[in-house]
Specification:
The structure is a single chain. By secondary structure, the chain is α+β, with helices and mostly antiparallel strands. The chain is 54% helix and 11% strand. The chain is built from 4 helices and 4 strands. Strand 3 and strand 4 form a beta hairpin. The chain starts with a helix and ends with a strand.
Length: 131
């Protein structure tokens, strides 16, 4: 994801430079010829400058060598994403098959975690065992 943002930032910079230069030239020509409607070129120039700024921010904040800002460099996007995904997988799926003992079905989820879930032998939703 970081490489995609970096590449997008560079693309925006490269894309906006010709628009910025060309619209500036046209604006000067418009002013020299004393035409009254030169605002279009000014607006194109402002939009190009905004695109360049966004591109620079994307490129700087996501460049492969880091940003130089310690808090941003230490932040691990994939780790944060994995923790969010793990929250959605808190309980076993409805069709999970466990071991039946004393009228209840037991399953360890995730396997090897020593976290047990139980439900009646007849089926139903899994509930976390707090024993």
């Amino acid at each position: 994801m970081r490489d995609l943002r970096f590449s997008s930032g560079l693309f925006l910079i490269v894309l906006s430079i010709p628009f910025f230069s060309f619209s500036g030239d046209l604006r000067l020509e418009c002013i020299i010829n004393e035409n009254s409607n030169c605002n279009l070129y000014k607006n194109i120039q402002i939009a190009s400058l905004a695109l360049m700024t966004i591109g620079m921010l994307l490129a700087i904040l996501s460049r492969p060598g880091g940003t130089g800002i310690k808090a941003l460099d230490l932040y691990d996007e994939e780790k944060a994403f994995d923790s969010i995904v793990a929250e959605f997988e808190d309980t076993p799926s409805f069709d999970a098959v466990g071991v039946v003992q004393q009228g209840y079905e037991w399953v360890e989820h995730p396997p090897g975690s020593d976290t047990w879930f139980t439900r009646p032998e007849s089926g139903g939703a899994w509930t976390k065992y707090r024993g």
